[in-house]
Amino acid sequence: MTNRQIILTTVPEGALGPHHFELTEAPMPAPAQGEVLLRTVLMSIDAANRSWMKGATYRAAVQAGDAMPTYAICEVVESASPRLSKGDVVAAEVVWADHVVRPAHKVQKLPPVQPLTHLLSVYGIAGKTAFHGLMQVGQPLAGETIVVSAAAGSVGGYVGQIGKALGCRVVGIAGGAEKCAFVRDELGFDDCIDYRSTGMFKALRAACPDGVDVYFDNVGGTVLETVLGLMNERGRVVCCGAISQYDTDTPTGPRNLPGVVVVKRLRMEGFIVMDFARDDAKAMRALQAWVRAGQIKVTEDVVEGLENAPQALIGLLNGENRGKRMVRVGPDPT
Amino acid sequence: MTNRQIILTTVPEGALGPHHFELTEAPMPAPAQGEVLLRTVLMSIDAANRSWMKGATYRAAVQAGDAMPTYAICEVVESASPRLSKGDVVAAEVVWADHVVRPAHKVQKLPPVQPLTHLLSVYGIAGKTAFHGLMQVGQPLAGETIVVSAAAGSVGGYVGQIGKALGCRVVGIAGGAEKCAFVRDELGFDDCIDYRSTGMFKALRAACPDGVDVYFDNVGGTVLETVLGLMNERGRVVCCGAISQYDTDTPTGPRNLPGVVVVKRLRMEGFIVMDFARDDAKAMRALQAWVRAGQIKVTEDVVEGLENAPQALIGLLNGENRGKRMVRVGPDPT
């Protein structure tokens, strides 16, 4: 019995393409004492995956020849540890593969939530990133204005909906008229600005008549530069990601930094979701309450098949997803 | 009787030069009811003066034809207000001139400190900016490493000496070997790196073997980009100024922003000294204690004569000052 996995064959310079990956077959791995054999069910596709190829971040760099790492929801199919049993559903850091062996203490048993996809979207990495970043770093108050970029993406969509639930004015930024309509009409943002259109600064200024108090930045680059020009004094910039800078070898910095930070006394602060793991239970409780109340709509974008993971990531970097993108590798456990 | 004042005749594009200013004579102003006539004694020369010409900041932009604004120490020579008497020594926002009329409620009577110059340097805008920025925004702890740019300048020198008094490792950045020697030998920094030399990144890395916890940024630009690459996780960047960006029409942003802020979970925060005015008494008490204990050396750079104010500012923007630069317009009150 063999096991499919996808290798990053070369580290990309410039834009990521399908030729940077290869689907290979290897013998089925077997768990040693203390390990479990996992079957991959759903793999999270994130912009951060691309940043991992650029060097060491909060994790070691992905190098040429490595199986591509990912967060995933898996089923335990064989256990050599008393910690876990066959049939358990777990979250784990694995690789793009049908099966992976991991130490049992490195995987986390999941609560019984249905559908499982919600454990990657609203109750998973996307929803928790939005919740912790907005609440703990951005700290918006009712009546303030929040701007969020990549608003049609997984994190951005939840940021805006949480902001609306808190009583804020929420303006999204997304690429293209169709996405902006989705953000306004489906997600209920007050407005959404197309960053690809000309006159983005004027459009955003018109959409934010009281200025911007919190900017949740998923993109960096020129969009960040533009929003900084509209921030109010004492505004907060939640630095969550910089997708505009990942898929290139010639990153550009906002030219108004750090001057505008001084003049307006801004706070820019970075975070990653794991920093706030101790508050994950609070996030889960709040997100469930908002979902039940109909204040958060769960948006998911599921790509079928392990072999389509490279294109799922490439497409995400080009902004083709709506909501949380994931790849279904196999069926839910029965 | 006439009054000399210096006008900004044109708003500079690119570097500031003497041709942007003109010394003029006007009739001596007279105070109306509620106003005072001030004689300028000492004018503060600050990098921020140049940024005021670039547009609205925390104050209105300086425009062509305006007398050049400044903070100054003045003597009341005629009072039409019960608030102040002839002979009082005050701090005021005035202009580059021998005499200025101001509303009495807009000027602040000064405590009896000698020499008066200390009220612009260690106990004035420079020392308070260093104290509030480092203590309230940077929040260093003993044993941490502080890096400060423009270390031979007014604010930078006090930042480093306060850091040493707190038990931190302190590394300066300055332009040229002579200035670096001043920072190390006269101000007592642990080390000082010449940003004009090649290999600044490597030199700074060697000087900060435990990484950088607090970066007090007075310059922005490529120096900021370099230090960001050496910050520790959870590091704090105190955004005080961006002198490298003021005297140019082609500012450059650090290319690693905001990516490095996310990955290292940095906090970058801007401030201006007036934000912390309510804590000025604390600053004064602490600075006086350190000066008395010999832990802070007061460095001042006094240029004589109102007519030399333009060159004093131009020279400061080119980094020629050591310590707090000011212009003496007239003698101390007797």
UniProtKB/TrEMBL annotation, chains A, B:
GO molecular function: oxidoreductase activity
UniProt cross-references to SUPFAM superfamilies, sorted A to Z: GroES-like (SSF50129), NAD(P)-binding Rossmann-fold domains (SSF51735)
Sections of the chain in a coiled coil: none
Pfam family, one: ADH_zinc_N
Keyword set, alphabetical order: Oxidoreductase
Domain Enoyl reductase (ER): 14-327
Record bears the keyword Amino-acid biosynthesis: no
Record has Oxidoreductase as a keyword: yes
InterPro entries recorded: ADH-like_C (IPR013149), ADH_N_2 (IPR041694), ER (IPR020843), GroES-like_sf (IPR011032), MDR_fam (IPR045010), NAD(P)-bd_dom_sf (IPR036291)
Source species, domain of life: Bacteria
EC number: 1.-.-.-
PANTHER family per record: PROSTAGLANDIN REDUCTASE, PROSTAGLANDIN REDUCTASE 1
Protein name: NADP-dependent oxidoreductase
Organism: Tateyamaria armeniaca
